[in-house]
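Appendix C. Worked example: MFS superfamily sulfate permease-like transporter
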Amino acid sequence: MAFTKLEAPASSPTGRRRYFRADVRAGFLVFLLALPLSMALAHASGFPPVAGLLSAIVGGVVGALVGGPGLTIKGPAAGLVALAASAVQELGHGNAQLGYKLTLAVIVVAGLVQVIFGLLHLGSLGEVVPAAAVRGLLAAIGLTLIAKQLFVLTGTGAPSQLPLLTGIPRAFATLNPAVCLIGLVSLALLLGLPRLRVPGLRHLPAPLVLVLVAVGLGRGLGLGPDLLVKLPGKLTDAVTFPDFSQVLSGPSLRYIVLFALVGSLESVLSARAVDLLAPLPSRASLNRDLLTIGIGNTLAGLVGGLPLISEIVRSSANVRSGAQTRWANFYHGLLLLVLGALGAPLLTQIPQAALAALLLYTGLQLVWPGELTQLWPISGEQRAVFLVTVGVALTAGLLSGVGAGIGVKLLIHLWRGLPLRRMFWAAVDIEQATPGLYEVRVLEAAVFSNYFSLQNRLETLPTGQHIIIDLSQTRLVDHTALENLARYAQDYARSGGQLTITGLPQPVSAPPATRVRTAAPPDPAPA
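Step 2, the predicted output written as structure tokens:
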């Protein structure tokens, strides 16, 4: 598979003017999605709903001004909801307001840690985490989200402690009919509207339609204010400062580590996924993206906002809506700022059940995303890593789940014959065949755990050349390494060169990480 040079949109003021209309349109459509989703995420996290708007505003403005190229949307995300809710509960010892302020302090410090991650160029570490482990992490988050939101959707109180799943039958036995009706109608709109064949209707933003219908139903059914969204009269009244009095306590330090690591991992992987979706090569620097997220989290925590990341749902919508530059993120944040400042009374008419339906739908997407349907048939190895990650993440915590998934992946590679000396260090032979042509022969193994050493060797080659990566003398090539090689080839093509991957039984195709060599080559080269 060969990659040749691509042209990127200009990042100068001229380029910004050129794409102004496309970016404003995309920013507006993302704003319609972000408005209810941000409030729903905040409510599910134990934060005031307006905290989601504050976070999305900070993410939009900071993401555009600091983030560099890329089409990712910065804001609150479902992946951190369970973590934030747990922090509020544990740090506040049942006092929601105290837990909220103490969690804000944790977010501020976690943001500073992420800034350090970005300055140390640790963003690229997210590229080598096996895709199956990442999908398992997101699925575990989605299952937790679904279980919690079922209680809100039925109008019953969720238990403060796990196991959540055992309380679901009780929730349906004591449901509030009016609340449940609004929740089910909202969920039906989210599931059905994009599938309608009626011209014009299928392209309406489902979250916007959901809000309008739910507000009408809420008024018609006479929902009380305790079942509606609560917002302050003015956006400035929502600003809440963190409480740093316990930031050095054991639980706070643990949550600082969790927010910094889980948020960084999910953000980097989201940015990477959006780069693959983008129609133009307006690619994000993963280290710059991590630096931006850190600055955004520090600012969001200081004013009372949720933790933010490069969020995949809104980022995908941004790409599908035709965004061309990072300024689409800015316009979406600006629109949220205007509405938050002027339209708060309108937002307080939204039923909480509608937001719960939106989050439940988001949880379903995390549990069974489109990428998983591609990943699942690849091999039993991928399924094993996925299932182990889900199980451990649900029972022992998110980071434990990712660690278990990575551990299973390494054990499978060792069982398949990966030499211990090649677990973290790739054997690479580079030869200049002719002027402008380099042959790179990878020996023995190219797997996720030794990919960085392989990439470091590739980066010693000059740009603008023709590079052939020969994998014919490898015994093992895993999905993550092959996917990263294909991505590196695309990046190299953008510098004006050409890179070809050869030596596999079948050619590399999309998705790239679907060809794995597990048998020894005919004539293996010596180490």
